[in-house]
Amino acid sequence: ELSGTRYAVYTLTVEPDLWPMKRDRNLRIFQGQTVPQIVKTLLGEYQVNIEDRLTGSYRTWEYCVQYQESSFAFISRLMELEGIAYHFKHEADKH
Q1: What is the model's pTM?
Q2: 66-71, long-range: CB within 8 Å, 24+ apart, which pairs?
């Protein structure tokens, strides 16, 4: 308070749509799917829209386990194993 005037401090955090995926922890099994299929399934659960530009073919995993890791860490690990990169596209009307 300064000279009878009150001030408030606010904090604003801006995060990508997939940020909530960093806060969960799951145990699940995916069978007979490719990494892109698994990634799309998980992103769909969080209603994250993606622009799919994949052109290669990817192996089908007989058995793939997410064990006590966040969905973000899980899909990041899988994409790294398959050599898939991603980036965030910033647009004026989609923040």
Answers
A1: 0.80
A2: 66/26, 66/27, 66/28, 66/29, 66/30, 67/27, 68/25, 68/26, 68/27, 69/25, 69/26, 70/21, 70/22, 70/23, 70/24, 70/25, 70/26, 71/21, 71/24, 71/26, 71/42, 71/45, 71/46
